[in-house]
From TrEMBL:
Its main location: cytoplasm. This is Translation initiation factor IF-2. Belongs to the TRAFAC class translation factor GTPase superfamily. Classic translation factor GTPase family. IF-2 subfamily. One of its GO terms (molecular function) is translation initiation factor activity. Keywords: Cytoplasm, GTP-binding, Initiation factor, Nucleotide-binding, Protein biosynthesis. Residues 70-239 form the Tr-type G domain. The keyword GTP-binding applies. One of the essential components for the initiation of protein synthesis. Protects formylmethionyl-tRNA from spontaneous hydrolysis and promotes its binding to the 30S ribosomal subunits. Also involved in the hydrolysis of GTP during the formation of the 70S ribosomal complex. It is found in: Cytoplasm. GTP binds at residues 79-86, 125-129, 179-182. The chain holds residues 331 to 801 of 899 of the full protein. Residues 73-221 are annotated as: G-domain.
């Protein structure tokens, strides 16, 4: 609404007058948006910019097998607060500091690279699943392997479980780092048992998840962890084509008073060269200066390299994609078209996952899975809700519980729901703080209940297309 200079209440009043909506959280379809715009005397453009046209000019082809070379793995560290994610990243960096560099390398550009036996590993420096999911929500699946940090003296905790759900939803393999092994209360066996309960079966348990005991404090096991990461990466057969124009994801960006927009790019394919024209999200420019994670000026960067660049005309967002293109003019054109599309999307946004939408999507054959996140006040009730819901799956619709857990509905649930297109079901729990408003912004539906029967009833009815929209 801000975009077109009309207040939310004006919109709602008009819609109520037209008998179209009854509350502020309703979503508009295209027809309604058009009627509304006429009433308000504004113009909306729906679908004017065709998807294919927007990025015209960006190099787009399948890499030929013979051009592909191995590329290093890109890692995100996740886990419960205070289990040692930051310390572990520090310890990993420390194993790699050569004598001449020590003391000098504290520059944080959002990613760091370490080498073991000449093989490179890239770590994203913002630990936690929030950053991971925020990136995924924007379409950036850049993590190859998730390192799940679990403190050996504290075992599996709520954010450990959340991290597992996030990694699984993304289809990213997990390596468990059992941290704080130096502590007297360390109990790695309990960690493994607890992980098994949450579907993470480590090798001792007959599973295929690698677990490594480490101490970020003493450095014990860190090298072994790096070796295991390389081993897992080998299995994944990560490849890229250094011959094509560079592309990848913006992992951090800020406005520097002296330098202007500064962006950290993670090159996932191709090679980026200083002086080239580039589009990053809705911004464009020419790379004036490129530095690596140590702050050294470099001229080119191949696949799985993090670089900081100067030269964009504006600040892109973390999670935006970037592409090197043939010249400045093309870069500017693409960025302009993307800005236009973004404006349209804000106006026409109606794609949401709600139980009400479900049936029409089933009819159109669009939906086969109903993704749900279940939060409850006690473990017993969560288990009961989950198993009753799972039983509802039929030939047309499969109920998929993306995540379940005990506790209030939090921001992490909303970001997961947003990426997974899930509806959040709360049983005797509510959203905390400003979580409801975040959910509204992200078009995520939160439904709270006090009676299990009502949950089952609503989901069943939604599957049959009979859900009372007055809910
Ligand atoms: P994060 O919240 O997961 O990033 O955790 P931090 O890295 O901030 O660590 C939380 C606390 O645990 C800090 O006080 C660390 O010093 C401590 N810590 C982290 N790793 C270890 C470890 O291996 N051994 C011991 N004894 N303490 C650790």
């Amino acid at each position: 609404c801000e975009q077109v200079g009309v207040s939310v209440s004006q919109v709602i009043m008009t819609l109520m007058k037209l008998g179209i909506v009854t509350n502020i959280n309703a979503n508009l379809d295209e027809d309604t948006a058009l009627i509304l715009s006429e009433e308000l005397g504004i113009s909306v453009v729906i679908g004017a910019v065709e998807e294919e046209d927007i990025d015209e000019g960006i190099e787009d082809f399948e890499d030929k097998e013979e051009d592909l070379v191995h590329r290093p793995p890109i890692i995100t560290v996740m886990g419960h607060v205070d289990h040692g994610k930051t310390s572990l990243l520090d310890a990993i960096r420390a194993t790699n500091v050569t004598a001449s560099e020590s003391g000098g390398i504290t520059q944080h550009i959002g990613a760091s690279e370490v080498k073991l036996n000449g093989q490179k590993i890239v770590f994203l420096d913002t630990p936690g699943h929030e950053a991971f999911t925020a990136m995924r929500a924007r379409g950036a699946d850049i993590t190859d392997i998730a390192v799940l940090v679990v403190a050996a003296d504290d075992s599996v905790k709520p954010q450990t479980v959340e991290s597992i759900s996030h990694a699984k939803a993304a289809g990213v393999p997990i390596i468990v780092a059992i941290n704080k092994m130096d502590k007297p209360g360390a109990n790695p066996d309990l960690v493994k048992t607890d992980l098994a309960e949450h579907g993470v079966l480590v090798e001792d348990w007959g599973g295929d998840v690698i677990s490594v005991p480490v101490s970020a404090k003493t450095g014990e096991g860190i090298e072994n962890l790096l070796e295991m990461i390389l081993l897992q990466a080998e299995v994944l057969e990560l490849k890229a084509n250094p011959k094509r124009l560079g592309l990848g994801t913006v992992i951090e960006a800020r406005l520097d008073k002296a330098k202007g927009p500064v962006a950290t790019l993670l090159v996932t394919n191709g090679t980026v060269k200083s002086g080239q024209s580039i589009v990053a999200g809705n911004t464009s420019g020419r790379i004036r200066l490129m530095t690596d994670y140590k702050g050294t000026t470099i001229k080119k960067a191949g696949p799985a390299t993090a670089v900081e660049i100067l030269g964009l005309d504006d600040v892109p967002s973390a999670g935006d994609d970037f592409h090197v293109v043939k010249d400045d003019k093309l870069a500017r054109e693409i960025a302009d078209k993307r800005k236009q599309k973004q404006r349209e999307e804000i106006l026409a946004r109606n794609a949401s996952s709600t139980l009400e939408d479900l049936f029409s999507q089933i009819k159109e054959g669009e939906v086969k899975d109903l993704n749900l996140i279940v939060k409850g006040d006690v473990m017993g009730s969560v288990g009961a809700v989950v198993s009753s819901l799972e039983k509802l799956s039929n030939d047309e619709v499969r109920i998929k519980i993306v995540h379940s857990g005990v506790g209030a509905i939090n921001e992490s649930d909303v970001t997961l729901a947003s990426t997974a297109g899930a509806v959040i079901i709360g049983f005797n729990v509510r959203p905390t703080g400003n979580v409801q408003s975040i959910a509204d912004r992200e078009n995520v539906q939160i439904r709270t209940y006090r009676v299990i029967y009502n949950i089952i009833d609503d989901v069943e009815n939604a599957m049959k297309g009979m859900l009372d929209p007055e809910f």
